[in-house]
Amino acid sequence: MDSPIDREAASAAARNAPVAANPDRAPANAPMAMAAAAVSAESDDIANRRDRLLASLTLIAGVGLVVALPFALRAGAEFFLPVTAALIIAVALVPILEWLERRRLPAPVASLVCVIGFLMVANGVLAAIVVPAFQFFRMLPERIGRIQMNIKPILEIYNSVEKYVDKTAMRLAAGSAKNVADAAQATAVPPRSLIELVAVSAPTVLLHIFFGTLIVFFFLSGWTRLRRQTITSRASFDGALATARVIQNVVDDTSAYLGTITVINLALGLAIAIALWVMGMPYPLMWGGIVALLNYVPYLGPIAAAMLLALGGLMVFSDLWVALVPALIMIGAHLLEANVITPLVVGHRLTINPIMILISLSFWGWVWGTPGALLAVPILIILQTVIEAAGKPDIAGFLFEHGTLDHGRRGGGGAAPPGR
Fold it and tell me: What is the largest CA-CA distance in the chain?
């Protein structure tokens, strides 16, 4: 027989028991709670599906843009190439513009000084390279025999292809002689300036140069105002500070790279010119200018310069080993410059992955040819600076964590129910 204390404890335990243990005594709002939980789970599943759909559409649009952009740039090269080149030149001239403005020179006047100075330098480069090259390579048909005599020991090693090489050389000589004769009839005097060259050879190039010059001038004249508006239009102080930092980094990195590489290339070209002058090579300044210009194209430019110097040596000197000395001088000077001088001067600030340089050279060379190869590294520097400031996109996380390839439940980790 239970005591009163036992009966009171049993009564209290029955009152405190969970409602779920006795479904008959469950409160009236339990079905509503279960329905709300089901609706919440359903809405979460719909949200997950919507997120995956949006991620898939974003991925498809991004891939389509990446695939279509190169063809658009290549098809519109007459517009995009001068615009891109002008903007890179303008960005490189910004430090000079700011230096002139700090001397209280008005922005339009400072911009005009920068543009005129750049055109004078470009015209001087033309006078030092193109005009002598035009005269020197006119002698190529006359020197075919000497070239054949110089390379005869090499051709004897490859006796099986000697006839093919001779036939090709004869065709080259005949075609070059005809082309030179036609060119001599058309114009007997080589161009003496940049304007004269493009006016005679390709008037459309003159229009591109004029168009690019206007872009450089107006970009520089409105640079200070554009930068101020871009920074002050940010909604927060942190956003304005980040924008100012990105703009300054792009200007500093681009101008520092182009300025430093220009000084190094000029020094390399001058050293090559002095060495060739000592050897008695005709037009040493022309060869130095060719070396300096081609050295803007990493990896491929020095190879092309060495091949041109080998061709020039074979045209000038009678002995094979003496004829190859200019190319060997170029190779040795480039190895010294690329492995000692440039890393010492440029340092680690503008260090770029060699694979990215090769990809950029291949891409822009395919899109725009030789001008694209010259612009490949500056474009890569600008993109690298912007991406470092904005943060590198996490493609793997986008695809596999919460993106288009994520088939799991967020937070749940279980498999989706059948029929969903």
Answer: 135
